[in-house]
Amino acid sequence: MKYRTEKDLLGEKLIPEEALYGIHTARAQENFPVSGYRQEPVFIKAFGYVKKACILTNMELGYLGGDFCGYILQAVDELIDSQLDEHIIVDALQGGAGTSTNMNVNEVIANRALELAGRKKGEYDLIHPLKHINLHQSTNDVFPTSMKVAALILLNDAETAVTELQAELQKKEHEFAHILKTGRTELQDAVPVTMGRVFSAFAEAVSRDRWRIFKSRERIRVINLGGTMIGTGISAPRDYIFLATETLRDLTGFNLSRGENLIDSTQNHDPFVEVSGIMKAHAVTIRKMANDLRLLSAGPHSGYGEIQLEPLQAGSSIMPGKVNPVIPEMLEQCAVKIFANDQIVTETASRGELELNAFLPLLNMAFLESLRLIINMDTLLVDKCLSTIKVNEEQCDRHVRAGFGALVGLLPRFGYDTVQEIASRAAQSHRPPSEIIKEMGLMDETEINQFLSPHNFSQLGYEPPAVKGDSGYADNS
Question: Carries keyword Electron transport (predicted)?
Answer without folding.
Answer: no
